Amino acid sequence: MKESNLKIRQAVPEDAQALVKIYSYYVKETAITFEYTVPSVSEFKTRINKISTNYPYLVALLNNKIVGYAYLSAFHPRAAYHWSAEVSIYLENGLQHHGLGSLLYQLLEKSAYAQNILNLNACISFLENADEHLPLTSIYFHKKMGYLQTAHFHECGYKFSKWYDMIWAEKHISSHPIPAPVFYPFSKISNSFFQELNATGY
């Protein structure tokens, strides 16, 4: 997606209300997330602050309206996992399939590379035969973005009176040297990241 009125920036707590509005569709209507209850604005502010300590939390604005967000987060809290991060993305319903998701994932990958994150991991809910709550678009999207399935957990999530599977997929974005490179929190590379991003028109 390349829109003259599209802007990408780091999320701030004041974005929480707009992000909750986008996320609420996925909680109420889909099995893409296994949450049952839409988080409060206060809870979302806490999540933004916690994630932003070390990772990019990107929001996309079209004509100054937030229409999607994507972020990296810790794959696991223990120190040996510093070089792996989980990817997450949510777009305003109806804006899928226009390239915004691909753009946000490419930017997350760019940040991860600069942070010396080597592995990106995606947790994807799955049903062999898609239903009204879970299309298979997320599976196809991650395959298109170069993610390979590494694990398949069966009937592990219950929502909408149905059991759903969970798939983990990963993408290696760099080699794995020894010793491991220094992990940089996003705050260390954010200025150069957004300067370069702004130079491209976003």
What does this molecule look like?
This protein is of the alpha+beta class and 202 residues long. The chain has one domain: Aminopeptidase (3-Layer(aba) Sandwich), CATH 3.40.630. Helices cover 32% and strands 30% of the residues. The protein is built from five helices and seven strands, in the order βααβββαβαββα. The longest helix has 16 residues, at 100-115. It is globular, with a radius of gyration of 17 Å.
By helix and strand content, what is the structural category?
alpha+beta
Computed over alpha carbons, the radius of gyration is 17 Å
Question: What spatial order of strands do you see in the largest sheet?
Answer: 1-2-3-4-5-7-6
Name of the CATH homologous superfamily: Gcn5-related N-acetyltransferase (GNAT)
Cα shape: globular
How many strand elements?
A: 7
Number of helices: 5
- Helical residues, percent: 25-40%
CATH topology: Aminopeptidase
End-to-end separation in angstroms reads 11 Å
> What is the CATH architecture term?
3-Layer(aba) Sandwich
* Beta-strand proportion: 25-35%
The arrangement of helices and strands along the chain is EHHEEEHEHEEH
GO molecular function, one term: acyltransferase activity, transferring groups other than amino-acyl groups
Keywords: Transferase
Protein name: Acetyltransferase
Pfam families: Acetyltransf_4 (PF13420)
Please outline the helices and strands:
Elements: E1 6-10, H1 16-29, H2 41-52, E2 57-62, E3 65-74, E4 84-91, H3 100-115, E5 119-126, H4 137-144, E6 148-159, E7 162-172, H5 186-199
Helix pairs in contact: 1-2, 3-5
